[in-house]
């Protein structure tokens, strides 16, 4: 997926996650949207740094790197929600575009789904919107269905 797709995905997820965590639709919702949209969008841009440093879709497109972003806020109380951007970047690359990613790098086998469209295709935005909506449904199910609110998201101060 291209940068436009990852930013669109990150911003829309920010709005969606804001409503999942603070569904009232009031000032608290707006505050939560801002609080989560920025780190999620930043995180969504992180994996493609490996186009300049390392090997693209390998060095920063793998589960150990995602694990570091999930663990960091718990250990250092900082960078909350950035991991969501990293995770959804992987999902968008794997599900929304033709080439897979090396999830278990340094093992270089790339994994993807046969659902992707070319990154320059006219359907790219549509695919991004569909995947973003699906991610928010899964997120809602996790937060409300499994009662996972608080881990590893860490509740925002009221
Ligand atoms: Zn990527």
From TrEMBL:
It comes from the Archaea. Keywords: Hydrolase, Membrane, Transmembrane, Transmembrane helix. InterPro entries: YdjM-like. Signal peptide: none annotated. The keyword Hydrolase applies. The keyword Acetylation does not apply. The chain crosses the membrane at residues 7-24, 30-47, 59-76, 126-151. GO terms for molecular function: hydrolase activity. Pfam families: YdjM. This is Metal-dependent hydrolase. It comes from Halocatena salina.
């Amino acid at each position: 997926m291209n940068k436009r797709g990852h930013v669109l995905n990150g911003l829309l997820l920010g709005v969606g996650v804001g409503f999942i965590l603070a569904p009232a639709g009031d000032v608290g919702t707006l505050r939560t949207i801002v609080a989560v949209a920025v780190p999620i969008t930043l995180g969504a841009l992180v994996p493609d740094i490996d186009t300049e440093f390392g090997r693209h879709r390998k060095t920063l497109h793998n589960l150990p790197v995602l694990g570091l972003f999930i663990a960091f806020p718990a250990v250092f109380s900082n960078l909350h929600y950035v991991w969501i951007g990293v995770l959804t970047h992987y999902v968008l690359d794997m599900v929304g575009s033709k080439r897979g990613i090396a999830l278990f790098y340094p093992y270089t086998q790339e994994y993807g789904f046969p659902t992707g469209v070319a990154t320059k295709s006219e359907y790219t935005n549509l695919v991004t919107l569909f995947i973003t909506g699906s991610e928010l449904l899964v997120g809602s199910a996790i937060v409300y269905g499994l009662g996972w609110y608080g881990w590893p998201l860490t509740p925002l101060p009221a």
